[in-house]
UniProtKB/TrEMBL annotation:
Catalytic activity: L-glutamate + ATP = L-glutamyl 5-phosphate + ADP
Annotated source species: Sphingomicrobium sediminis
Example of a GO cellular component annotation carried by this entry: cytosol
Function: Catalyzes the transfer of a phosphate group to glutamate to form L-glutamate 5-phosphate.
Gene Ontology terms: biological process: L-proline biosynthetic process
Listed Pfam families: AA_kinase, PUA
Gene for this chain: proB
Protein name (record): Glutamate 5-kinase
Alphabetically ordered keywords of this record: Amino-acid biosynthesis, ATP-binding, Cytoplasm, Kinase, Nucleotide-binding, Proline biosynthesis, Transferase
Length: 388
């Protein structure tokens, strides 16, 4: 595994694709690859998470960003990906380095074994001085099984590669305390906690799938992994190194100093919700010791259809997310166990169990630095009914 510091760089669609012509912006791509060449000379690894395949393929399938449906975008991704990779390959060849394509789906991040396999592949490429170019496999993904935006995908790549820096290049120069078009909007140069800024981050690019909200979510994931995140405008002579060197304007999200293990970080940083359970507040207090499992008798309600090994979100009775952990049973089994707490497990399931729905070693109690997920509507409505 490479000992050189790693930089993960996320490139927005609007930087790679001409907004009107939907063709590659070769000028930007040349500046980017030249800067990567300089960084490699300084002993740094670079992983690119590049959007742009869908945008570059839209014209080929006769669609526009406004008219394209899901199947149109899937077809456009199939057409645009060879254009995108060929442009990177040709420019990289000028600077004497090779590229490799890695297409991922949600399951490659949410399944731990596939996560580790992907991690090993990326590190093997970097060990061979090959630049991995990562993207979601838009050709085969649907809304139910997709990451949905390359900001969070890139943050997960930063987590899996133990990156030191995570750079998000976009159309703005960083984060503002409100929408930058509003009068009196103030630039935010440095952030410890992204939570206070989430309300001011609505909207997304016409060409892209993620706005500033997804960038803050991505920054939070990277912070949890001990990676410093930067959001900056992509149009610069040295788009990456000028950020790392601190020679131009950007917003920096400071890495958290107290790091979780790779296992706990993988559990805590989710891209989609598999399922939820609600427990009593006194159980939450006991979970904070780090030695208490979530037991069958603790479960007050359950939501979602999931399998053994999926990560569950644990809520208190007020609907606040308090922990995340690996399910030891399927949703159907948990419903049977929790709904019949006085009946022996062997009678219910056909075999003996300890009754631990989530083992202590597979549980992460969320701290203030984590972005919490809102409870599903079914859980929230159930809690409101009980309060009434």
């Amino acid at each position: 595994m490479s000992e050189h510091p790693t930089i993960v760089v996320k490139i927005g669609s609007s930087l790679v694709a001409n907004r009107d012509l939907l063709t590659p912006r070769f000028g930007f791509m040349h500046r980017l690859m030249e800067d990567i060449f300089r960084l490699r000379q300084r002993g740094m690894n670079v992983v690119l998470c590049s959007s742009g395949a869908v945008a570059l393929g839209l014209r080929m399938v006769g669609e526009t960003p406004g008219s394209a449906g899901v199947s149109d975008k899937q077809a456009a991704a199939a057409c645009g990906m060879p254009l995108l990779l060929n442009a990177y390959r040709q420019i990289g060849h000028e600077y004497g380095f090779n590229i490799a394509q890695i297409l991922l789906t949600l399951g490659d991040f949410e399944d731990h074994r596939r996560f580790l396999n992907t991690r090993n592949t990326v590190h093997r490429l970097m060990d061979s001085d090959i630049i991995p170019i990562v993207n979601e496999n838009d050709t085969i993904t649907t809304e139910e099984i997709r990451v949905g935006d390359n900001d969070r995908l890139a943050a997960k790549v930063a987590q899996m590669t133990d990156a030191k820096h995570f750079v998000i290049l976009t159309e703005v120069d960083g984060l503002y305390d409100r929408h930058p078009d509003e009068e009196g909007a103030q630039f935010v140069p440095e952030v410890d906690d992204v939570t206070p800024y989430m309300a001011a981050t609505q909207g997304k690019s016409e060409l892209g799938t993620g706005g500033m909200a997804t960038k803050l979510m991505a920054a939070n994931m990277a912070q949890e992994a001990g990676c410093t995140t930067y959001i900056a405008h992509g149009e610069a002579d040295r788009p990456i190194s000028s950020i790392i060197d601190g020679s131009r304007r950007f917003t920096r999200f400071k890495a958290h100093k107290t790091l979780q293990s790779g296992w706990k970080s993988w559990i805590a940083n989710r891209l989609q919700m598999a399922g939820t359970v609600v427990v009593e507040d006194d159980v939450i207090a006991q979970l904070k010791t780090g030695e208490r499992a979530v037991l069958r008798e603790d479960i007050q309600s359950i939501d979602g259809d999931f399998t053994r090994g999926d990560v569950l979100h644990v809520y208190d009775r007020s609907g606040t997310e308090r922990a995340r952990g690996l399910a030891d049973f399927t949703s159907e089994e948990i419903r049977v166990l929790a709904g019949n707490p006085d009946i022996d497990s062997e009678q219910l399931l056909g075999y003996k169990i300890k009754g631990e729905i989530i083992r202590a070693k597979n549980l992460v109690v969320l701290e203030g630095r984590h972005l919490r997920w809102d409870a599903p509507e079914s859980v929230a409505s159930e809690q409101k009914t009980e309060e009434a």
